[in-house]
Amino acid sequence: MIEQNNPFIVEQIAKRNKKGERFEYIALSALMICIAFLTFFLYTLIKDGLPAFKQAYVKVEFTLSQEIIKNPYSAVSSQLRPLVSRAWLRNLPARVKNDKIEIGQSVSYWALSSSQTDQYIKENYNKLTDNQKNLVDDMVKNGLIKQQFNGLFFKTGDSKIPESAGLLSAAIGTIMTMLVTMSLALPLGVATAIYLEEFAKDNKFTQFIEININNLNAVPSILFGLLGLAVFINIFGVPRSSPLVGGMTLALMSLPVIIVSSRSALRAVPATIRQAGFGLGLTKLQIVKDHVLPLAMPGILTGSIIALAQAMGETAPLMIVGMIAFVPDAPETITQAATVMPAQIFTWSGMPERMYVEKTSAGILVLLTIMLVLNSVAIYLRKKFQRKW
């Protein structure tokens, strides 16, 4: 009776609270679904990718002869030949030459195993016959086959022989491409943001520019690839498949993000800093260069690093400018043909051999690690130099 006469108790409150609780449960369910998908994604990547960091090696013993130098495949018996990598046997003459092995000298090597042998040891699908499997089992028991860290994955470039394929050429191509991107996008983006935020007058032209910059953030990345193909390659003749054209294309894609984040960082600097500068008789350039820009630099760096990390993971625009090609050797200059890590991973994902599956996952793990490091650096810079007003 008392509650019914109390004007502060509304009957609909209980109903509203229940609605609020249901909405909270729905939001929590959405979060849990996202976490479940992310966990499943990471679990699949780690499960498939970690085995790629180990590689099987076969102990091979032979006496060097002229026949082996002419035909390195004769260094091992026909029974053992399917277990050893063709790439290793093919490079055997160069290896014995570097090791200064003389004719008639007996040597033993831990030879790179074939992909089928490696996959059998890892209990994956393979095409070894029963006799070959029995031979592998016996050799493992006798210590003639062992697994060790797969350094070749980081020391070699792409290869049509799965066990010999690595990330080196793609990693160097990625570094060169990102250097070109950074050297173009960072100064252009920051300078544009400074002009629009500090010097440009507020008129229809600048408003038109601002709207277009904001809209460019939503443009699909593949369109930047088409722009790079049409302008940089077809008009200016920049070498196709090179880090130069890839970096210029990614710079176009990164510019809107860098400009918007830099403008936000400049806008976050209190107006009192500028007013104090004018009060002391400083020019606009002195205020921006000596006071506003240093204070906004943590935010500018954070946005720039995130933009470059995003560009590093892009594949579509680089495919358009030809960086999806098979490039086994690392480029030496920014005008040579190269590929990048996302394109390399994409190529491996379409290969039929089972070993490329684990190499694809391992490549994604390496790329994710680099991007996490870059994002961690961005967070560190923001925390370290951030000023609270």
TrEMBL record:
The chain crosses the membrane at residues 25-46, 167-196, 216-238, 244-266, 292-313, 361-381. One of its GO terms (biological process) is phosphate ion transmembrane transport. It holds the Pfam family BPD_transp_1. GO terms for cellular component: plasma membrane. CDD domains: TM_PBP2 (cd06261). Keywords: Cell membrane, Membrane, Transmembrane, Transmembrane helix, Transport. It is found in: Cell membrane. It is a multi-pass membrane protein. SUPFAM superfamilies: MetI-like. The keyword Heme does not apply. Residues 171-378 form the ABC transmembrane type-1 domain. One of its GO terms (molecular function) is phosphate transmembrane transporter activity. Belongs to the binding-protein-dependent transport system permease family. CysTW subfamily. This is Phosphate transport system permease protein PstA. It comes from Campylobacter geochelonis. The gene is pstA.
